[in-house]
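Quick question, first post here. What does this chain look like in 3D?
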Amino acid sequence: MNAGKTIFSQLMDYLPSQEFRRCVDRYNGNHKIQRFSCWDQFLCMAFAQLTYRESLRDIEACLHSAGTKLYHMGIRSRVARNTLANANQVRDWRIYADFAQTLIATARRLYIGDSFGVDLQATTYALDSTMIDLCVSLFPWAKYRKRDRAVKLHTLLDLRGNIPSVVIITHGKVHDVNILHQLAFDVFNRLYSMKVDKSTGVRSDQTITFSGFYSHKDYPDKLRRISFHDVETNKRLVFLTNNFTLSAVTIAQLYRCRWQIELFFRWIKQHLRIKSFYGTSENALKTQIWIAISVYVLVAIVKKRLNLDGSLYRILQILSVTIFEKTPILEALSHVDEMNALDTNRIQLNLFE
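> Answer (accepted):
Ran it through. Tokens below.
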């Protein structure tokens, strides 16, 4: 029964509270804290993400306006912006990073049977990073260029469900090659070609080696070069891979799926609060990003467990305006499918369809 519980409280019931306590204990998060626990901090920051709050003052004002509803939301302490700011600055961000990884593991199990457009049983990932620009005077620690500051969000995305499996937050100078070694290549020797079915779009399937002195020294092994014609864009694409097991068509489809991570980055920048921050310290910034990721994955988990067909964007829209209501969450979110049917022409990044 959900009688007396707000939509926000019902949503938070899907969080594994015991795992959260383990994460807090691991880093002594509640040591010598009498009021405004790590759980209260997480709930306030999750509320800010779900309702698109712009600042600490905005969070404080909205939660104060809720009055007695705060108790039903699970927040047991008075919320003041200075208290929240201090918590974000001093409480170890790894508490929320570890908790996000717990949610990610749950989400990946739920989406393991989903198709991502390629007929493969194995788990398939895409790796990329996105830049988050910061103010030079407020974030001097986030090294990037002489007159710029930024952090990078390096993400390994599980293409089944578009769940971020690994997220590493670094300053802007850290290149992707430091996260996963990428090859630099130039001229190559073609050893031999495989016969291809050009009706599939594949134009050539060749085995090659590098002919450049340094490139061959760095990577002396064979590679596979696949040329593919994309009929949708009328472009010729060339792919290099060290995978000699999969078919050429499957390799081309996998490279197409790799752009899902670009959609993921665009989506979270548009719909989560990770472009403007409530604190300026490294700890506060990482805390906010990890809680944003937790909220993203939590809504994905709820979508799967409630068997909702609508997009994640629609679900967040409904949650943002019904957060204080005391109706069953399934009843509130059941309108997602109706909204999707009425607005099929709207251009949005629907990652979970």
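Strands lie at 125-134, 143-145, 148-158, 163-171, 188-194, 202-210, 223-230, 235-241.
The two ends are 29 Å apart (CA to CA).
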